[in-house]
Design a protein that fits this description.
By secondary structure, the protein is α+β, with helices and mostly antiparallel strands. It is built from 3 helices and 7 strands, in the order αββαββββαβ. It has helices at 3-10, 37-47, 93-109; strands spanning 24-26, 33-35, 50-51, 55-60, 63-72, 75-84, 115-117. Strand 1 and strand 2 form a beta hairpin. Helix 2 packs across helix 3.
Length: 125
């Protein structure tokens, strides 16, 4: 599913005069489509995606890594969510790791190819 199909199917906003009102945009440096975490949550709610409890792989003061899984009908996907002080801002590595894992799973479940979450480390709004 491409970004245009996703925008239409899930009623996501782009080209708003206030950039903060957009649900997705093209990353200038990489040319990749970026979708906001809140838009991924809208998609999950509309599709009825069930996200399971994370499996914590590492949880230290400066580093968190977890496996996140989700289900859409009979389809199941999983991904790793990770964050540390080198690839995230602030003291909330667990929250960032969770968002990254959830967004990756949601995008996999709807077959969103070449679209990345705003929570990824390379994204600079």
């Amino acid at each position: 599913m491409n970004i245009k199909e996703i925008a239409e199917k899930y009623n996501l906003k782009t080209k708003q005069s206030n950039k903060d009102d957009n649900d997705f945009w093209m990353h200038k440096q990489s040319g990749k489509w970026i979708i906001k975490h809140s838009a991924c949550e809208k998609i999950a709610n509309k599709e009825g995606i069930i996200i399971g409890p994370p499996q914590i792989l590492n949880s230290e003061q400066s580093f968190v890594r977890m496996v996140v899984s989700g289900k859409l009908g009979d389809k199941m996907e999983w991904s790793i969510g990770e964050a540390d002080t080198k690839n995230s801002v602030g003291f909330y590595q667990g929250m960032i790791a969770e968002k990254r894992g959830k967004d990756r799973v949601i995008l996999k479940l709807i077959s969103a190819i070449g679209i990345y979450s705003s929570e990824e480390t390379f994204v600079d709004e």
